Amino acid sequence: MRYAVCAMLAATVALAGTPGLVYAQQPAEMSDEERARQVEQLAAQGAQAYRSGDYAKAIELFEKAYALEPVPNLLYNIAKCHEKQEDYEQAVDFYQKFAVAPDVDSKARQAALDRVESLREIANLQKDTEKGSDQQANNGNQQNQQVEPAEPVVERDNSAAVWTMVGGGALLATGAVVGLAVAKPKADEVKTGETYAQRKAARDDAQTYALVADGLLVSGAVVTGIGLYLYFSGSESEPKQTASKAVVTPWVTSSSAGLGMSLDF
């Protein structure tokens, strides 16, 4: 009778595992024919549930059938159901139970052992993947914690440099005007003066205006250079500072003339 039930189940399904088996007590009054009929019916229902994708229901039906009659093929079917559910630990457990069960064909036993090896590799791969994902998440959290806020960038104030260059340009222009419009005519008057006194006075005036023009030109060049230095040497990350002030003071004596300049930073 047992061999007939085994052959029937093997032809009906090829399925997989589930949680621990429930071994129900067999009614004392149930005959072998009735038990075989119920096992056959439960196995057929389990196979139908497996084909429809209801693996939990198939496991339940196969376990009930195994409780009535411990047919090894039912263990294989339960293992197959667990494998479909990706419950690899339970699947491996029932494949191993099937492999050590008596009266199991050698080819079927080897097939079950092959599935055990494959499922263990899959389970280990999943654990490694989950471990790697957790490690990446932890590293990301640590990096976020270690990132320091960037310092605010303070806008650079170039007004001092710009005004310094403007002042330098004005001094250069004034020096050129003085040299061309005033000093040169006085120099020409030295040659055309009618008397010695007129020529001497014109010469003194020409020298004075020439000194003033030279002073303006030199001061303008210096101020312009300072303005360029301030403009290009400023750092964008430095705090905004108070504008620098340039003060130019002309001076003239009976024998010389010039400009004095001071910078207030």
TrEMBL record:
This is Tetratricopeptide repeat protein. Residues 129-154 are annotated as: Disordered. Residues 135-146 have a biased composition (Low complexity). It comes from Persicimonas caeni. InterPro entries: TPR-like_helical_dom_sf, TPR_rpt. The chain crosses the membrane at residues 160-183, 209-232. TPR repeats lie at residues 39-72. Keywords: Membrane, Signal, TPR repeat, Transmembrane, Transmembrane helix. Residues 1-24 form the signal peptide.
